[in-house]
Design goal:
Mean pLDDT: 79
Low-confidence stretches: 5-18, 37-42
Largest sheet: 4 strands, antiparallel
Strand content: 5-15%
Number of helices: 4
Strand order of the largest sheet: 1-2-3-4
Order of helices and strands: HHHHEEEE
């Protein structure tokens, strides 16, 4: 019993004899912060801020072939989507070929039995923003109403991929 008590006394003595920490802040040189990288601006040297204008499509212009291909992909994707009686794994695999990687992940957990549409009833129509050659919106009519599909591509020769299928509004 005396040995632990002696060790405790020595430890307390050491702590009480140790110099106190200096709590006064050290003087520092006054410096002005500098940016580690240049400021990033949007097209035409404008700031990247909400409410600005969308920059030009930087080389991707719309042509009839691009529009035709977007319509084709929208219709095929909606055709594979609107199959509520197909087994889940088959449905997801068939649909994935038309989807962006993000959409593939998003729709992988969808149960096709919950999809109200079971057939496409007319041709897709596009809403094209001529200043944006990377994306387009397609309206695809089905027996459950018109779905809106967002299609994206990464370049003029890149394939169109569906990023989102939005059901009709009630």
């Amino acid at each position: 019993m005396k040995k632990p008590l002696a060790l405790l006394a020595v430890a307390l003595l050491c702590v009480s004899c140790a110099p106190a920490a200096n709590t006064t802040p050290a003087e520092t040189a006054s410096t002005t912060p500098t940016a580690s990288a240049p400021v990033s601006l949007s097209a035409n040297s404008g700031p990247q801020a909400p409410g600005g204008t969308i920059p030009a499509s930087t080389g991707i212009t719309w042509d009839q072939a691009s529009k035709d291909k977007a319509v084709e992909i929208a219709q095929k994707a909606m055709g594979d989507f609107a199959r509520p009686n197909v087994e889940e794994k088959q449905w997801a695999n068939d649909l994935a070929r038309w989807l962006t990687p993000q959409a593939t992940a998003d729709y992988s957990a969808v149960d096709p039995a919950n999809i109200p549409a079971n057939r496409v009833t007319g041709p897709a129509t596009l809403t094209v923003d001529e200043a944006n050659g990377y994306g387009v919106t397609a309206a695809v009519p089905t027996n459950a109403g018109t779905y809106t599909l967002q299609l994206l591509r990464t370049g003029k020769e890149a394939p169109w991929k569906v990023n989102r299928l939005t059901p009709p509004t009630a």
